[in-house]
Amino acid sequence: MTKPAARPTARRGLRRIAVGFGAVVLTVTALPAAAAAPAATAGQGARTAATATGTATAAGTAPGIDPAALQQSLDALRDAGMYGAYSAVRDGGESWAGATGVADVDTGRPADAGMRHRVGSVTKTFTAVAVLQLVEAGRIGLDDPIGDHLPELVPGERGRAVTVRMLLNHTSGIADYLETVFPSFAERSPRSIHDNRFRAFGEEELVRHGLAAPPTGEPGEKWAYSNTNYVLAGLLLEKVTGTTAEKYIARNVIERAGLRDTSFPATPFVPGPHSAAYEAFFGTLDPPRDYSVYHPSAFDTAGALVSTVDDVNRFYRQLFQGALLGPEQLAEMRRTVPITDEQGNAAGHYGLGLFATDLPCGRFWGHNGTVMGMSTLALSSGDGRRQVTTGTNLTKYNDLDENGVPRPHPIDAAWDRHTLTALCPGAPADTTRTAGSLLPG
Annotated catalytic sites, by residue? Predict the structure, then answer.
């Protein structure tokens, strides 16, 4: 990855929230000028398609899609230093899909909008929907203590205090297992994940790491992002249904939503055509290393899904238009708690497997996610009509400040602009508070 020769003059950015792989990072930092891009011709790998079968206004946006503007804003990610990116946008009956840059830096193979992609913590919405389907069927209650269902795993006072709802909205106080399963993360090193990339982890093993770590707070006290919560949710699904969580989600969420290219992979390989997955790990890996092959069990029902940008849009559209849950459970998903920083300042809103972000044209819902080398951001209007999902194949491209906090990168600003172009066409060019400010973690 090409880096700027020197730290440029910067303009102020807004608070950025990382929700996904690794710890949540909250910072108010500067946005540097654009870095040099990897070798690629303008528009290389683009696959655009637009249909005009209807018009719609979602969350206050102007109707319609501008393919040229969308492709230009997607190309800006490549120009800012991203190797490859792909995106799908929808407005009612109109749709567009495009790609930019390369899927493989060695061969120059172009990125394509139909590529399969590890979507990381977008998986959490799928898992939350599956749990809420059981709530809807009366088989569990949102406010059931988790110890009622998994007493051997979460016994005693903690099992009585932590509820199903607290798992889904990250207020359980149960710590994330990632930094104990992969201890080199605390040293800003990928060594432990590289050493374990083909290891098959057990769900209970992951959960026990999270339960053994110091709590992030008392149950229900505050929001603290934790993958352990969603592995526990998967174990809850298995206990109640008598089948694996992956099979239950496949049958009752993925198939029900009509998704054709979405699955929990059973091997270290991404099924179907896909990009390489370049991990820079904040400059530790230079050049970035391809992590497209690793065992997905380390992320399980918290982040192991493979999908496409079009499938992810379809999933959220089906969800918000009532095909997967009834109105009562959908309303529960949208009951949010504050996303807070270490000082307790509210910086966003998190529901049950969903976050909300407010843009110049209204409120949008979705999730993001990052695993080694692949990031995803998915947002939809409340009625599911206006949507964008974008995937990228280079992660942790930021360098770190003296406190170990990632500095904003030109890619961040370009992703902001593409998201705003997709969801709020006509928004002022100097708008800085966009959904891309919720950077994948």
Answer: 121
